[in-house]
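Colleagues,

For the teaching module next term, I've prepared a clean inverse folding example: a structure given as tokens, and then the sequence designed for it. I'd like students to try predicting residues themselves before seeing the answer, so please don't circulate the second half yet.
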């Protein structure tokens, strides 16, 4: 945690201008680009200090009799002269001994007489300053050791308290709080926020010098605000679309740092130390984004997002690790900033996500619709009581994180997945595990991730990185960056071009060179999915067949699957040829329509025996009853295709009645193009056409769009003399960057439309140019950060 060399250099430059010190130690040192808050202590800040100290007093030390005795024994060999570098095990004993002796002094025990002399020796000889750096992710030491030191504060003299606080501030790198935004943007870390904020707050609030305490609290508040700035590339934390990063990608599971962050924002509300309005808006967007990806629930326990977003905790790490209480805290932080009781906009989201009327007079926000998160990259479609999530890796966003004895079979975690999550429980969505302990059982087929296109392994060892339970692996794409979504209110489009990488540092798997393009058009409570260019080649067994998985549902024998009106019996395994349409309703009430012309449909219902996500362990294999279905592309396929329609929350009767009108001429969906580099499908009831252009295209005749000189996603709708268009490029076109790993770059796209159209006054005309020639309209538009542009045109006479 502590840059020892930089700190020593800084001390040697004491009294010199900070700019000079920064130049001497480089841009990453403690004094680099420091912002010094005003040192004034107004009456208001003194009053706020007292109010906060009363509300958040120092806690008395706690220790057992055995810990007090260990502290006394430790003192017998305690010699600061022999501690030029304090080892981590010595650090733990140093801090624990101080806590125990403080407790003894507090309780008037005989051993308490050793407290003050021991503390004075530590402070005089600078022992804390010699403690080596704590890694931010050392969740035990970085959280416990500073607490042990600071637990002594109630028993300190004012002089000792000030010295001890300054020592712990150095250990916790308090200087970071005063770095300029540009430096913080490069170094902000979610582990630091989660683990260190509580110590920083105590050090700031309880400094015996009121002027210093006020200055430190202003620094603390500024830091909370500054860390919400959007950070480019792969670095932590917040991204402009509302996602949160850790381990170089969007990672909901690691965003428990939001809990500490929001808690301390809340502690400052109602005081002159409150966070800024811009910081609040960015933090609110981040919290809302997490809940938009998850199912709604009246409780804290029932908010679940898709397995593709679970990181290294598959099938059990799917819950939102925030809380109703903290959400309300943030609502009130927003109100405090604006001089209100609460922020009505965020309150409307709260009432919706928690299915409540807690905020009286505030109608729940209607969250139905499509949402894009192109720093994930994911598309999320919300309707009624379900959430559908689509996701795929790129060269900059991994899709699966495989750790030592964790997520060992997670290679296919987001290979173009399409998952439908229902409110209530993970069981309602067909997932088998409630927590990590239950996940120690096997029974889930790791080949069959819903919606994913995968090469099915026939032996589990081959699916492990390097065939063992320890080697790590992050599943990136090999060369492709086109993956993401385009939201347009009540509809949206997800698409991905993917080529699988088999290396992580070194070769981790037998190469299968799996590649595909796929798209999902979500509208009218349905999701139409297409794939093309599906290929897999390599020196691997012919028994490893390539498939596009429709679903897998663990049923525990409570529900079965209905296919073409027939209920499957346990043990059934069907192979349905492609000469006619088929429809399925799975045990979770999700319907699937598979039009004729696809590869064979495999449907199975019965027991399956597999290992748990922790690898091939002593626990062995587990057996569960599952229903699953997939389109079988065969051994080492080349340029295969598929089409299917997903209808969540349906019934057998509805699927039987609607199956004939889903696709084909005059159907709800009409496929206009399904090429390796181009998908076009039309939703006939709304006259909405969806274009997934995986490469530039010309000569288009399916709608108003004639050509585009860039890869992009586009939705168009013609109504009379009006043309409405939504467009984005989910490929962020990453370029290497020395600070952020990579940064996104804009796309200047030129679109050519049939007819003569003029941009109307409702459209944002920034970075948009429109020209006309030969009865055509050319629109040049700048697309940035994966964000959508919405353009409305009227026919020009």
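(Answer key — instructors only)
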């Amino acid at each position: 945690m502590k840059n020892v060399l930089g700190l020593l250099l800084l001390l040697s430059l004491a009294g010199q201008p900070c700019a000079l010190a920064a130049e001497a130690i480089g841009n990453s040192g403690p004094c680099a680009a420091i912002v010094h808050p005003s040192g004034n202590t107004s009456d208001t800040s003194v009053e706020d200090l007292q109010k906060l100290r009363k509300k958040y007093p120092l806690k008395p030390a706690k220790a057992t009799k055995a810990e007090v005795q260990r502290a006394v024994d430790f003192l017998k060999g305690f010699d600061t002269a022999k501690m030029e570098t304090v080892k981590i095990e010595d650090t733990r004993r140093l801090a624990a001994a101080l806590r125990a002796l403080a407790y003894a002094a507090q309780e008037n025990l005989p051993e308490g007489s050793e407290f003050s002399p021991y503390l004075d020796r530590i402070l005089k000889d600078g022992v804390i300053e010699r403690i080596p750096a704590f890694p931010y992710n050392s969740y035990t030491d970085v959280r416990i050791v500073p607490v042990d030191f600071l637990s002594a504060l109630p028993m300190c003299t004012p002089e000792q308290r000030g010295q001890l606080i300054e020592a712990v501030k150095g250990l916790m790198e308090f200087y970071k709080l005063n770095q300029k935004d540009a430096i913080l943007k490069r170094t902000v870390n979610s582990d630091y926020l989660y683990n260190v904020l509580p110590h920083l707050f105590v050090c700031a609030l309880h400094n015996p010098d009121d002027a210093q305490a006020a200055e430190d609290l202003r620094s603390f508040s500024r830091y909370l605000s500054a860390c919400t700035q959007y950070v480019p590339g792969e670095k932590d934390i917040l991204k402009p679309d509302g996602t949160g990063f850790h381990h170089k990608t969007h990672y909901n599971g690691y965003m428990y740092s939001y809990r500490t962050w929001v808690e301390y924002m809340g502690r400052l509300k109602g005081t002159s130390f409150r966070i800024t309005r811009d910081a609040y808006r960015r933090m609110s967007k981040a919290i809302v984004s997490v809940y938009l990806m998850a199912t709604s629930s009246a409780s804290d326990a029932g908010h679940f997002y898709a397995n593709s977003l679970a990181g290294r905790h598959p099938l059990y790490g799917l819950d939102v690790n925030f809380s109703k209480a903290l959400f309300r805290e943030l609502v009130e932080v927003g109100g405090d900033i604006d001089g209100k009781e609460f922020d009505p906009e965020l309150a409307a989201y709260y009432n919706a996500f928690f299915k409540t009327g807690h905020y009286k007079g505030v109608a729940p926000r209607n969250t139905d619709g499509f949402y894009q998160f192109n720093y994930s990259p994911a598309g999320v479609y919300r309707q009624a009581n379900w959430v559908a999530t689509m996701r795929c890796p790129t060269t900059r966003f991994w899709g699966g994180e495989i750790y030592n004895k964790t997520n060992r079979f997670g290679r296919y975690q987001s290979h173009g997945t399409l998952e439908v999550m229902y409110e209530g429980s993970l069981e309602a969505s067909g997932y088998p595990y409630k927590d990590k302990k239950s996940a120690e059982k096997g029974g889930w087929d790791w080949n069959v991730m819903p919606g994913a296109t995968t090469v099915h392994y026939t032996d589990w060892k081959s699916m492990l990185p390097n065939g063992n339970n320890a080697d790590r692996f992050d599943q990136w794409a090999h060369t492709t960056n086109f993956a993401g979504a385009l939201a347009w209110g009540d509809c949206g489009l997800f698409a991905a071009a993917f080529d699988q990488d088999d290396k992580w540092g070194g070769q981790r798997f037998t190469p299968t060179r799996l590649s595909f393009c796929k798209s999902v058009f979500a509208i009218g409570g349905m999701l139409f999915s297409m794939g093309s260019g599906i290929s897999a080649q390599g020196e691997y067994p012919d028994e490893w067949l390539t498939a596009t998985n429709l679903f897998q549902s663990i049923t525990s024998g409570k529900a079965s699957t209905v296919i073409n009106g027939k209920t499957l019996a346990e043990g059934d395994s069907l192979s349905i040829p492609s000469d006619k349409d088929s429809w399925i309703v799975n045990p979770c009430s999700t319907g699937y329509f598979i039009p004729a012309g696809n590869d064979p449909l495999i449907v199975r219902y019965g027991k399956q025996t597999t290992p748990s996500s922790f690898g091939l362990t002593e626990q062995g294999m587990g057996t569960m009853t599952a229903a699953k279905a997939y389109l079988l592309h065969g051994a080492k396929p080349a340029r295969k295709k598929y089409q299917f329609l997903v209808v969540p929350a349906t019934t057998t009767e509805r699927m039987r009645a609607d199956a004939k009108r889903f696709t084909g001429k005059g159907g709800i969906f009409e496929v206009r193009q399904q090429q390796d580099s181009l998908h076009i499908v039309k939703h006939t009831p709304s006259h909405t056409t969806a274009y997934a252009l995986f490469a530039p295209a010309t000569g288009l005749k399916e709608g108003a769009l004639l050509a585009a000189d860039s890869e992009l996603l586009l939705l168009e709708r013609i109504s009379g003399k009006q043309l409405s268009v939504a467009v984005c490029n989910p490929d962020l076109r990453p370029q290497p960057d020395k600070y952020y790993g990579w940064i996104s770059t804009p796309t200047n796209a030129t679109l050519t439309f049939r007819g003569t159209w003029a941009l109307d006054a409702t459209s944002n005309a920034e970075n948009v140019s429109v020209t006309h020639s030969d009865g055509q309209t050319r629109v040049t538009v700048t697309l940035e950060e994966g964000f959508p542009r919405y353009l409305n045109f009227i026919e020009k006479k």
